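Lecture notes, unit on protein representations.

Consider one protein chain, 485 amino acids long.
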Amino acid sequence: NTRFAATTDDDKTFVADYPLLPTRRRFWEKVLRNTDHSGTKAQLRNQLQIVFEATRETASAAVGTVVPADFIYDQISTDLLNSGELEREYDDIIRHQRDGTADGALRSRLCAIIFLIGKLPRTPGADDGVRANAETLVDLLISDLKTERPKLEQQAPKLLQQMVDAGKLMAVDTEYRLQTPEGARWNHDFKRRRTTALNDDQRISTKRTELLSETVKQALRPVSLQHGKSSTLRKLKHELSSARPVINTDAITLWLRDGWIDDENSVKNDARSAGVSSPMLFAYLPRLHHEDLKQAIASQLAAQETLDTQGLAGGAEAIEPRKAVETHLANAQHSIEQLLGRIISGAKIFLGGGQEATGLELADKVREAATGALVRLFPHFDEADHANWGQVVLRARSGDVGALSQVGYPGNPTQHPVGRRVVEFIGAGKKGKDLREHFKATPFGWPQDAIDGALLTMLVAGNLRATINGQSAQASMPQNQIGVA
């Protein structure tokens, strides 16, 4: 996906170019043109000298060995230092990696390639699309075409991360850059804040609870509880707390606890103690990936603090250091999402009495458990569970005394289970709002249309009378006025 990529035209020069690949020749040419402003190194004579040295080094190797792209660095680094194209601290970073070990040599080569790629233009029109990401770095470093790639693909990402952690490189999105003095300042600030966060257990704990709570909220977003034949929508209210919440009268209550504060047996015992009549759901979030989550949270806190403190000041030299810290933030957030996802997937849900719900995801387990909990929360719901109460309201408002036939009841409206309970509760008189609140809550949980339908039908039949602001009201009143009647 770059302008240096192999083309069919390369077929004509593969043999002549060997052991230098045409793609790497193009890479070298572009590097030389953008680092040699005097024009001396870009001259054919000097290019031939570099190619000659590269060929001499690989001449005795087996066929399938090619010149690695970083070879050019040592050939031109002295001139680049003298011309100011290569900063002394960059050359020090590259050479100091060579500690006599194979890993050290590879770290140095990675840094050299990162430097060379950094010299390629990024301006529109001149940008060849080469980026210093792990995949491209491996592509450019391979010298043994037959066997080397799998090994480099394993080693390179680990060594790159080591150098990022050591402050020698910056990770900017998916790319790598050599660390600059300004970058080192930002990196030092980030690391200092990260260490402070790691040592503050209370802060980590508070942030973890906040993140768990938000993740649970997102995981439960798809849960839609529909009750009975009338598909009455039910609310689900959840709370992550070590303190027992109060059971809602009109919603399923999900009490969540995590393994950092409580253990699974405590949650199970509380569920058993609540008994089989309790509508509360008991959830346990397991304590998993503790250290990884702690590290990721510390990185998130430190990165956000660093960005907030440093602000947008600092000029052009702060652009990449800021992007590097933003990458720290994005990586930390990604790690946190993955780790919390595993914790949420491992959650256990218990009904009162101790029965555990099954399912792959938290939402599935909650849906299953809520089905049983709704029966416990609204034991009288069946009395009003019918899909046609909306039709009863329409018929009653039009004056039909037999409106309850829409729910299969042809008799006296005061003898229907809903009508009977409504009359009993009205007593000497109540507002429609009070009636709705009473019968929507436990132990009834009736749909509003069932309450309104019964009221309007009994108004038509003369079993009730209603007033609004002291004036007589009829069953034809708008449904939104029932609350004040």
